[in-house]
Write a structure and sequence with these properties.
109 residues, mainly beta, 5-stranded mixed β-sheet, 4-stranded antiparallel β-sheet, Ig-like_fold, PapD-like_sf
Length: 109
């Protein structure tokens, strides 16, 4: 079981903008994820919690507000989703991540 992001990095102007990414599972199991950011001041991520179904890419949006240029990262923790889980935030609170992927974020001038 694996998870990857496409594109694997985020490059946005320091003046702000958005970047669209897809989370894709390489396995046949439904995954649940939680996204953490190293910079919650300049970035907003939608959604923070969610599911990735096998064969169905999951869209995430990285939005940056105006701020000083710097390098940051997203850490996406994931694990197998319980079959009866409906609320990803509540379900993830009771689970331990089995993997993590990182999306480097670069704000440029």
């Amino acid at each position: 079981m694996s998870l990857c992001a496409d594109p694997p990095a985020c490059n946005l102007p320091a003046t702000g903008g958005t970047s669209n990414h897809k989370l894709i599972t390489g396995g046949t199991e439904r995954l649940i994820f939680k996204i953490k950011s190293s910079n919650n001041t300049d970035y907003r991520i939608t959604p923070v919690f969610g599911y990735v179904e096998p064969g169905v890419p999951r869209d995430i949006v990285i939005a940056r507000t105006q701020g000083p240029p710097k390098e940051d990262k997203l850490a996406i923790q994931f694990t197998l989703a319980p079959a009866d889980a409906h609320d990803p935030q509540a379900a993830f609170a009771n689970l331990s991540p089995i993997g993590i992927i990182t999306i480097p974020m670069n704000a440029f001038c």
